[in-house]
Amino acid sequence: MENEPKSVIGRRGSYAKGVARRQEILDRAIEVFAERGADGTSLRRIAEAIGVSHATLLHYFDSREQLLVAVYEHAESLRQAPEDLEQSSVDVMVAAATENVGVPGMVQLYSTLVATAIEEPAGESKEFFTRRFERVRTDMAQRLRDEQAAGTVRDDIDAETLATMLIALSDGVQTQWLLDPSIDLRDTLSRATALIAAR
Amino acid sequence: MENEPKSVIGRRGSYAKGVARRQEILDRAIEVFAERGADGTSLRRIAEAIGVSHATLLHYFDSREQLLVAVYEHAESLRQAPEDLEQSSVDVMVAAATENVGVPGMVQLYSTLVATAIEEPAGESKEFFTRRFERVRTDMAQRLRDEQAAGTVRDDIDAETLATMLIALSDGVQTQWLLDPSIDLRDTLSRATALIAAR
DNA sequence: GTCTATACGAAGATAGAC
DNA sequence: GTCTATCTTCGTATAGAC
Predict the structure, then answer these.
(1) Could you give the count of Cα atoms lying within 13 Å of A138 in the half-sphere of its Cβ?
(2) Fewest CB atoms less than 10 Å from the CB: which of A181, B104, B147, B179?
(3) Does domain B16-75 fall into CATH 1.10.10.60?
């Protein structure tokens, strides 16, 4: 029974030691980001923190960008499954955002990678975030469709558009919150419930 | 009569030739971004496109980051004054976003600088965007307050919070649109009118 | 004041030794 | 699998020409 890496990103290291090493890199990297901020995201800094050379990191990941995407994906996968069927669309959004800002460096990493994704015509980031937005939007839209059918959410705007708006709202408020922590992230995002409520 | 630079950013170049050169740099830089994408944002690339040495750029701007902020500020200042008093808050947001995405490289530059702003504890970007969000939020909130008083916008959410939400929405949708141009930016943002309408 | 030449250190990436 | 050495590009700093 093989222990296949879950991600499409960085397929190397399928053997036991390689897999362990790969996990160690991902686990440590997010900590380095949290501790050292932007200065801790270079290959050499991360490698130093782990105790290997920067060339070793490139043995497991094709590029710095690929490593960063894998780190984000890994950190995101560690979060609790958001799929309480009882939770409303806005509740899911608020929960995700709250967990996000609770991990130091997470919003910064997200923001950096999204910026890279929209800058580069064809890079690891672009592919990852295009797929991610598609997936998150689809999930959110389905939830909203159910709520529209149940009569709790307004149906004068289609679910896909509402999903796009809620995700944009969440991303944007997280950014503003980092620049002005006096903003009440949870409260602000929760107000979306009133905005999308059935009339 | 001195011809003082309008911005706090990059105060050098008060003499005739210097002022002209500085304008040329700002004008050309945004074009280079549009033409060459992320690969065109290095000092050496920009300098090459303008026909000067990269050291010259640092004569007018203290750092690459400061140059990039100045370029963004300059490009933004070229836009038509958004202050038609007849326009609604959402109309202003939609107009600004539409003009934004109409300038190639603009959203990418914005995104890159915001990412830098939230990464660096104390940098040019952080100061600029903290102030900018504050200003844009205040302007938008005032507009919303007027609309609440006029009875066209719901007043169960305070104007400051609504302003934060509208700005977040605009930023977020622009990002998603770059990764998936099938999203109708104008239509999606315009739907906000219904969301914040008085009940 | 304007601008170039040059040097330094850090960065991502690659090649090849072990 | 991991290292060192090396290449190239980058931001930045300085010295000095005009």
Answers:
(1) 6
(2) A181
(3) yes
